[in-house]
Automatic annotation (TrEMBL), chain A:
NCBIfam families recorded: PRK11301.1
UniProt name for this protein: High-affinity branched-chain amino acid ABC transporter permease LivM
Domain of life: Bacteria
Subcellular location: Cell membrane
Species assigned in the record: Mycoplana rhizolycopersici
Gene this protein is translated from: livM
Family matches, as Pfam families: BPD_transp_2, DUF3382
Keywords assigned by UniProt, alphabetized: Cell membrane, Membrane, Transmembrane, Transmembrane helix
Transmembrane segments: 24-44, 56-77, 108-128, 140-170, 182-203, 215-234, 277-299, 332-355, 367-395, 416-432
UniProtKB/TrEMBL annotation, chain B:
Gene3D superfamilies with a match to the protein in the record: P-loop containing nucleotide triphosphate hydrolases
Lineage, top ranks: Bacteria, Pseudomonadati, Pseudomonadota, Alphaproteobacteria, Hyphomicrobiales
Keywords (A to Z) from UniProt: Amino-acid transport, ATP-binding, Nucleotide-binding, Transport
Name recorded for this polypeptide: General L-amino acid ABC transporter ATP-binding protein
GO biological process: L-amino acid transport
Highest taxon above the source species: Bacteria
Species: Rhizobium subbaraonis
């Protein structure tokens, strides 16, 4: 490694040579590393004998990827990063004018979401749109909403909650049980599920009022598990691990139904061919509306005294008290508000699946929601939405990657690598952007002009 | 003028089993600047925190404006217009200067905010320059100004200042002490000040108390204490204690 600086005149020849050399060495190292791990495989045959399989093809792929990766990295990525660094340093002091896209990002995103189902239907047909509307659209929006709800507790009030999925469960079971036993409609039970979840949020809030940080996290974690275990073991009511199935569908405010037998079935009324896609498209708009409601309420609350108090509480509890803020009610309202949105999302989840069981409310869900909030940048709605789209959408995309079977053999199931990729993505984001995708906090009060305050000015790990 | 605003009577405060205050009597009259001086660990900050109800006194009483506040929670005490600039400033680091000041005015739901914020900006012009900046990015002196400014936004009857000179350059300390004097003279604000910087504090104060090991050992007017040989030896000339 004789040359570490990139002088412009000698860039062409020596850089390529260096890239080739380093690529070759990377391949050599990869060969040495993977020779025994990948190149040779031992399995047992039917008579319990050890069989040695040789996988030279796979080994070759590993070595080739390492060599090519290093070659391209040295030749293109490193100079590009260096150039970007100098470019950044040059313009650091100037105000970079925001592009139209950046300024209106959220408006354009909402517009795109509203237009998505008709576009999907136009492109892929009614049945073909299901994948895009349901698997991607609804799935991502549920997580966006959950993460926005949790953001109130974690991002604004700074209370680390590892048991958020409990409120999701309360909302889902509220809808499932009350609709089956009392026959209430979705639109009555949706607010009710939110209220019940908020109530449970307060119940959790009381014992943990004096706790902070790690201790709070552990108790909320336990709370999430308690709710799940109650759902498993209280079999008379919740039917335990069997779950509750046959949950009634939602209707368009009672005007049109999506039950196949009903006289006012949506498809029949409009004389459309029967398809489950209409219901999914309807649900897409419901969750979109719910998610936007969450965002709207969060934005409004941040400008109101209670939202201010949440943020102040996150920053410094003692200072809050000395300013006359009642930290008890502030914490309880944060828990209750966050839980309420969890409850909304839960009852939506129940109506979408038509089936709930405790399996849907494991700790992993809480962890994923929290990860989305942290990755997105705590407190930032746009950042969280981006994180949810990348994380949830990315894992859904894995299901589509059947072509990978051609490389790794027919037994390869890409979705099994979901958590691995999720974890890798978290590590990468945290290394590059320690405060999440959108790390800056937008102030809510201005005297004369609006000015974003960059997170890079403050010490890391302070918020 | 000499009406008692704050009266601390025979207060004992404990941290667990450790007695931090061993029967303290302190009085602050309306319109006065009173300072409390003493060495590290004498219990000065504990007394300040006890007045604010965190921790609460185990025995004894704290009376403010004729009302017993010994057992009130901290936020209720703050609502009686006892504003505090706590030790270590404790501003909100990720909020802007402007938002920090708004938090200070939350008791009145920002009713007098526009009018009061101008007063603060006149008192501390630096804060006006820095208003859109995050609290955490301010220098130590600016943070102290913000902390005092935020406390003043609550329109306090009594301002408690815990070590406003801590870690600041002498010039900034002078600016801050001058501001305290202006507030006292022009607005009649009552100030109770805890300080290590005994000389500056006593010079500013109408009266002072000296605290040693959780007890008040001496009291008197600022001038008397400044002239007192024991005080001089222990807190002003240094090194001989």
């Amino acid at each position: 490694m004789a040359t570490t600086t990139y002088s412009k005149e000698s860039a062409g020849g020596s850089l390529t040579a260096r890239a080739l050399r380093e690529g070759f060495f990377a391949g050599l190292v990869a060969f040495g590393l993977f020779f025994l791990f990948v190149g040779l495989e031992t399995t047992q045959n039917i008579r319990n004998e050890l069989v040695l399989n040789q996988r030279w093809g796979l080994l070759a792929i590993f070595v080739a990827v390492a060599a090519a990766g290093r070659f391209l990295g040295v030749l293109y990525v490193q100079p590009w990063l260096a150039a970007r660094k100098t470019a950044k340093a040059a313009v650091a002091d100037k105000d970079v004018p925001e592009t139209f896209l950046a300024r209106n990002f959220s408006k354009l995103a909402i517009l795109a979401l509203v237009l998505m189902p008709p576009v999907a239907v136009a492109l892929f047909g009614v049945q073909g749109s299901l994948k895009w509307v349901d698997n991607f659209g609804i799935q991502i929006l549920i997580y966006v909403m959950l993460a926005w709800g949790l953001n109130i507790v974690v991002g604004l009030a700074g209370l680390l909650d590892l048991g958020y999925v409990a409120f999701y469960a309360v909302g889902a079971y509220s809808y499932a049980l009350l609709s089956q036993h009392f026959g209430f409609s979705f639109w009555i039970l949706l607010p009710l599920a939110g209220i019940l979840a908020a109530f449970w949020g307060m119940i959790l809030g009381f014992p943990v009022l004096r706790l902070k940080g790690d201790y709070l996290a552990i108790v909320t974690l336990a709370f999430g598990e308690i709710i799940r275990l109650v759902l498993i073991n209280w079999t008379e009511v919740t039917k335990g691990t069997f779950g509750i199935s046959g949950i009634p569908k939602a209707s368009v405010f009672g005007i049109w139904s999506f039950d196949v037998g009903a006289a006012n079935n949506f498809a029949k009324v409009f004389e459309l061919p029967m398809s489950s896609a209409y219901y999914k498209i309807f649900l897409f708009y419901v969750i979109l509306a719910l998610a936007l409601l969450t965002a709207y309420v969060t934005i409004r609350l941040r400008r109101m005294p209670i939202g201010r108090a949440w943020e102040a509480l996150r920053e410094d509890e003692i200072a809050c008290r000395s300013l006359g803020i009642n930290t008890v009610t502030t914490k309880l309202t944060a828990f209750a508000t966050g839980a309420m949105f969890g409850g909304f999302a839960g009852s939506f989840f129940a109506v979408r699946q038509g089936f709930v069981s405790p399996e849907s409310f494991v700790f992993l869900e809480s962890a994923i929601i929290l990860a989305i909030v942290v990755l997105g940048g705590m407190g930032s709605l746009v950042g969280i939405a981006v994180a949810a789209t990348v994380m949830v959408g990315g894992t859904e995309l894995l299901r589509e990657m059947t072509f990978l079977k051609a490389i790794f053999g027919p037994d390869f199931t890409p979705e099994l690598y979901r958590m691995l990729i999720f974890g890798l993505a978290m590590v990468v984001v945290m290394v590059w952007k320690p405060r999440g995708f959108v790390g800056s906090r937008e102030p809510t009060a201005f005297l004369h002009e609006r000015k974003a305050v960059s997170g890079s000015f403050t010490k890391e790990g302070h918020g | 003028m000499s009406e008692t605003l704050l009266k601390v009577h025979a207060v004992e405060t404990y941290y667990g089993n450790i007695r931090a205050l061993a029967g303290v009597d302190v009085e602050v009259n309306r319109g006065e600047i009173v300072s409390l001086i003493g060495a590290n660990g004498a219990g000065k900050s504990t007394l300040m925190m006890t007045i604010c109800g965190s921790p609460q006194a185990r025995t004894g009483t704290v009376t403010f404006d004729g009302q017993d506040i010994t057992r009130l929670p901290t936020h209720e005490i703050a609502r009686l217009r006892i504003a505090q600039s706590p030790e270590g400033r404790r501003i909100f680091p990720r909020m802007t200067v402007y938002e920090n000041l708004q938090m200070g005015a939350s008791l009145d739901k920002l009713k007098y905010f526009d009018e009061d914020v101008e007063k603060i900006f006149t008192l501390f012009p630096r804060l006006k320059e820095r208003q859109a900046q995050r609290g955490g990015t301010l220098s130590g002196g600016e943070q102290q100004m913000l902390s005092i400014g935020r406390a003043l936004m609550a329109r306090p009857k009594l301002l408690l200042l815990d070590e406003p000179s801590l870690g600041l350059a002498p010039l900034i300390v002078k600016q801050i002490f001058d501001a305290i004097k202006v507030l006292n003279k022009e607005q009649g604000l009552t100030v109770f000040l805890v300080e290590q910087n005994a000389f500056a504090a006593l010079k500013l104060s109408d009266r002072g108390y000296v605290m040693v090991n959780g007890r008040v050992t001496m009291s008197g007017s600022g001038k008397e204490l400044l002239a007192n040989p024991e005080v001089r030896a222990a807190y002003l000339e240094g090194g001989r204690h």
